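Course assignment 3, question 2. Fill in each field.
Student: A.L.
Task: Predict the tertiary structure for the chain below.
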Amino acid sequence: MIFYFVRHGETDWNVQKKIQGTTDVPLNANGLRQARLLAEKLVDGSYKIERAYTSPHLRAQVTAQLVAKALGIECVDLPDLAEMDLGVWEGDNWPNIEEVYGEVYHYWNSHRRYVRTPGGECYNDVLKRTFRALEYMMKNVNGNVLVLSHSAIMMSLRCYLAGGCMDDETMLDYRAKNTEVVEIDAEEIKKAIKRFRREEEEYKDII
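Answer field:
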């Protein structure tokens, strides 16, 4: 079983470098074009995708639905695939957040796995629900799956799978471009889930 992770198409906030998080920003014209090109790419029979799962956010849903229609497969919403909740920082940009929040921002940036944004989530929260969603998929589908999600979902997962430090900006090395396809084998996911559960038990007092 192969997971094909894809980040949604472009939005105006992507272009403006605004923090989207849970804010439901739609695709722009280029994002719709990217989604159609993605659909054309994935129609290639070598992918053999049996089902699509998508974040409930409009930018992901529309991207996923265009692909699912082209492939003739079911498209299912999963709340656990939603983008990271960045709380009061949503709608702003990172340089301004750093200037306004100062020490709060720098502490979060250096301890981002377990420290939550003001009113939002930490990356461990994101990983936990991402793994929950992936377990659900593995129980309900035998074949390959399209997972249409977001930057923080894919970045945190890829960083974790690579054994990278999740508490500094090295996570940014694992960012995905709009409609980029990232292939991950289910066996790799299963091993990561076991490791994550061991860590949860070890660090349960701070989670």
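Instructor remarks: DSSP finds eight helices and five strands in the chain. The beta strands are 2-7, 49-54, 74-77, 144-149, 181-185.
Grade: pending
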